[in-house]
Amino acid sequence: MMQRRKILVVLKGYPRLSETFIAQELLGLEKAGFDLTLISMRRPTDKKRHPVHDEIKARVIYLPEYLHEEPLRVLKGLIASFGKPGIKALWKRFLKDLGRDVSRNRFRRLGQAFVLGREWPDNGGWLHAHFIHTPASVTEYASILTGVPWTCSAHAKDIWTSPDWDLHEKLGSARWTVTCTRSGYDHMRTLTPRKDAVHLSYHGLDLARFGHFAGARSRRDGCDPADPVLLLSVGRAVEKKGYETLLRALALLPPDLNWRFEHIGGGDKLSRLQALARELGVADRVTWKGALAQEDVLEHYRRADVFALACRIASDGDRDGLPNVLVEASSQRLPCVSTSVSGVPELLIDGVNGMVVPPEDPAAFAAALAALIGDPTRRMQLGDAAERRVREHFDHQASIDQLGQLFEEEWRKAS
Hints:
Blueprint: E1 7-11, H1 20-31, E2 36-40, H2 51-55, E3 60-62, H3 71-81, H4 87-100, H5 104-119, E4 126-130, H6 134-146, E5 150-154, H7 157-160, H8 164-173, E6 177-179, H9 182-189, E7 198-200, E8 229-234, H10 243-252, E9 259-264, H11 270-280, E10 286-290, H12 294-303, E11 306-308, H13 324-331, E12 336-339, H14 344-347, E13 355-357, H15 362-373, H16 376-393, H17 396-414
Parallel strand pairs: 1-2, 1-4, 2-3, 4-5, 5-6, 6-7, 8-9, 8-11, 9-10, 11-12, 12-13
């Protein structure tokens, strides 16, 4: 009988409110019978947790986030590394990488790999990285050091902000890599001769957690100052989410339309966005809710009228893959307005199950919002179509099944 291996899953941080798609995948793999231990490169900074985090049974091991904070642990890892089978190969690879990326970060990943290689929790038999940038660096180094094979889930920022040489190296050594958008999939396949080792797998949504919303949607049309149309967005206040574009679009809406806007999420640019809202004269219609747990976000989806996310490509190349919040909102019959960036058009078809406009175009975004604000019947048509598309094509169980098959196939070969 084929023996399943303990999987050590390397994460940048855990738990994180903004990464529910990772948490639901971990829970799905556990429910499918996979044995996981989570290796986090950072301790949590969020004050809240989603319910899904409490359902995950895997224990969490935290590596030293900065090597100088736990020097003895790092030193023990370094000393132990000289007895590992891949130490010469690892130093050769590290020096090659260092020649192309002279940074403290590069040394930090090596040190974290040494710690992981020495402590090696729960007799792990497989390594899997979430994100192909820094978590995959630690994972690949640990794999070279120990000889334990590794695989990777790549997402968005990690693909688009990593240099091509780095992606080429990792795609060449990972047993396989999955990613969640067609654009990321196509890009990575151009960087490796092992095209069959790159797989497209939409992470989808746990539809049991986001059940059908049978409640009535409002008939607000923006005419009544006492009952304005409710616009909602969920996302961190970072450049790629395009909140500057969204606020400028709100400022361009016709003055006779009555609306209010709620934002859910944290992020380092929140105070700057609040200042911009005041500058644009819309601050009195905007409510900043901060980060909320998943059940609270679900309630906001159900009482909003339009969901808005003005995705863009950031100055450093960072961009969303397929934002999970668009899938979540669509699952609740909430019509979405977004942009034609990365994986968004793989979910939203303009005029069919949502509105899609060019990125960084406040006027186009405002026109799409105004059209939906004034037309509750159209909102309901798009919302119903959005839910159908999610429930037919974005059930996360399909992704769990695909990942499970990939793992099982590797272990079948090994046995």
